[in-house]
Specification:
Helices cover 42% and strands 9% of the residues. The chain contains 19 helices and seven strands. The strands form three sheets. Strands 3-4-5 form a three-stranded antiparallel beta sheet. Strands 1-2 form a two-stranded antiparallel ribbon. The longest helix is centred in the middle third of the chain and has 31 residues. The protein is globular and about 75 Å long.
Length: 512
């Protein structure tokens, strides 16, 4: 039998509550979500990755607090400055024989003011002479330090005074971008038109293969139509291809090898990218539309063009109405682009373009090219939507084409093209996309005798209404300026070559 008290419930001693972790002990990842072009982006700073985690944590907390209290839309430069400064501080203190773990904002063991001066000199040596990045990084970090010094009495007076003073880095004066020459403009347009034709032919072939394809899980993985079917239904992955296609790429059927070689990658990863490109455009494929639209839409900046959604386009029989948003100016405006009748004159394709090469035609073709991407992949209806490998490189994912990733920029697109003789395109640097818009505006100014448009010209805001129902400024009165030839026709007439070998005569060269 149990002894007395053996079945008694024994209450163990309740351990003392641990004190709340201090700010220095919280070395977790700092995350700051914000909205960028209607999509959520998260900035992260992980203090544990640095040799001075306490300093990194204090700066990250001050940065997040400053972001919210100053009501900033985005503070990517502040986060970049903190990462650069903390990384430099660890290396600088180790070289000086000091322990980076002792660095903190509310301590005097490490003189962070001298470290900041050394970091400014490091930035000047790290970036080009005319770069504004050093000034922006130093100024952003000073704002974070000043915000912390005003709220923390433990910050040393020397660091407090340094945070209140301006940066020692001079703000570089940016050089104005020069327009492309007329020959460069024509070469870029020809390359863009060739890319669009090749893309549409490739997508048409992919749709034909999709109609023939069947589920490869039942009918085999060594058939190209079946792989296209798998890409359409999102079951095409590199682990699946590795298991089903054994023996190396040399044993694959010829259509599979040609698809992999056309992509330029190797192995099952290249095969997955090549098959996916038969149905979904990639970022480099969309560069052609980007180039032609910026050359034709004089009232649209590259920022406004990239931010377009498909619902922002309102097509009609007379053209397209585009609702444009400029984030920095917080401005939303609409512009109407009239369709130009098709022409058999090849010179019309050299300049603004007509028929399928004008603004409404290009936008219609871009929407058609990316229609299957929006149908298969859930997400926001961006006009520039591309399909690229995911982070793990085992699947393909769709997302916003920002044209900033390595290998997908405007300069990479130029380097991938050659002229009629097989030589690389000779395009002057910098390969900046904003130069396209300036080139188009300068071309029009010269062709119209010093005016980018006719004086007093108003674009039709109500193209589908009769004159009686339109606003007075939008009516077509006989004998008014609206009855004169449109500027597009005047530009083509002024730029039209007059003799053999005179292509592009009359347009601005941009340089000698």
């Amino acid at each position: 039998m149990p002894r007395r008290g053996e079945r008694r419930v024994r209450v163990s001693e309740i351990p003392a509550r641990r004190p709340a972790p201090t700010e220095e002990a919280r070395i977790g990842v700092r995350e700051l979500p914000y909205m960028d072009r209607h999509r959520q982006v998260t900035l992260r700073i992980d203090p544990s990755k640095y040799t001075c985690p306490t300093l990194a944590a204090q700066l990250a907390d001050s940065w997040m607090d400053y972001h919210h209290k100053a009501a900033l839309k985005k503070s990517t430069l502040h986060a970049q400055a903190i990462r650069s400064f903390v990384k430099f501080t660890g290396t600088h203190l180790l070289a000086a024989g000091l322990d980076p773990a002792d660095a903190r904002l509310d301590g005097s063991a490490i003189d962070l003011t001298e470290v900041f001066y050394a970091w400014e000199n490091y930035l000047l040596a790290e970036y080009p002479e005319q770069s504004r990045t050093p000034w922006g990084l130093a100024n952003s970090l000073l704002l974070v330090l000043y915000h912390r010094a005003e709220r923390d009495q433990g910050v040393p007076d020397k660091l407090r005074k340094r945070a209140a003073a301006p940066t020692t880095i001079r703000k570089a004066t940016g050089q104005p971008l020069d327009e492309f020459s007329n020959a460069e403009r024509i070469a870029l347009k020809a390359a863009a038109q060739g890319d669009i034709r090749a893309l549409e032919a490739r997508l048409a072939r992919g749709r034909d293969l999709l109609a023939e394809g069947r589920d490869p899980r039942e009918h085999g993985w060594r058939s190209l139509p079946n792989l296209v079917w798998a890409a359409r239904h999102q079951v095409l992955t590199t682990p699946q291809l590795t298991r089903k296609l054994r023996g190396g790429a040399g044993t694959w059927p010829a259509p599979l090898q040609e698809t992999r070689e056309a992509d330029g990658s190797v192995g099952v990863f290249g095969l997955m990218r090549g098959v996916s490109s038969l149905l979904f455009p990639r970022e480099l494929d969309l560069q052609g539309f980007r180039v032609l639209l910026l050359l034709a839409m004089l009232d649209c900046t590259s920022e406004e063009l990239h931010a377009l959604h498909v619902p922002d386009l309102d097509f009609s029989s007379e053209g397209v109405r585009v609702v444009q948003t400029k984030n920095r100016a917080e401005r939303i405006r609409a512009d109407f682009h009239v369709s130009e009748p098709a022409s058999e004159d090849p010179q019309d394709l050299v300049f603004e373009g007509r028929g399928e090469w004008d603004v409404p035609g290009l936008l219609r073709r871009l929407v058609r090219a990316t229609a299957m991407t929006r149908e298969v992949f859930a997400g926001e209806p961006w006009l520039f939507t591309a399909v690229e490998p995911g982070e793990n490189k085992t699947t393909m994912t769709a997302g916003f084409a920002d044209f900033t990733s390595l290998g997908r920029r405007f300069t990479n697109w130029i380097a991938a093209h050659s002229d009629s003789e097989g030589r690389p395109l000779e395009i002057s640097k910098p390969h900046e996309i904003r130069r396209l818009r300036k080139t188009a505006k300068t071309t029009r100014v010269v062709a119209l005798g010093g005016h980018a448009d006719r004086p007093g010209r108003r674009r039709p805001q109500h193209p589908g209404l009769p004159d009686a129902l339109r606003p007075r400024h939008d009516r077509s009165c006989p004998g008014s300026k609206r009855d004169q030839p449109r500027p597009a026709a005047r530009v083509r007439q002024a730029l039209r070559p007059t003799g053999p070998g005179a292509a592009g005569c009359g347009a601005p060269t941009g340089r000698t």
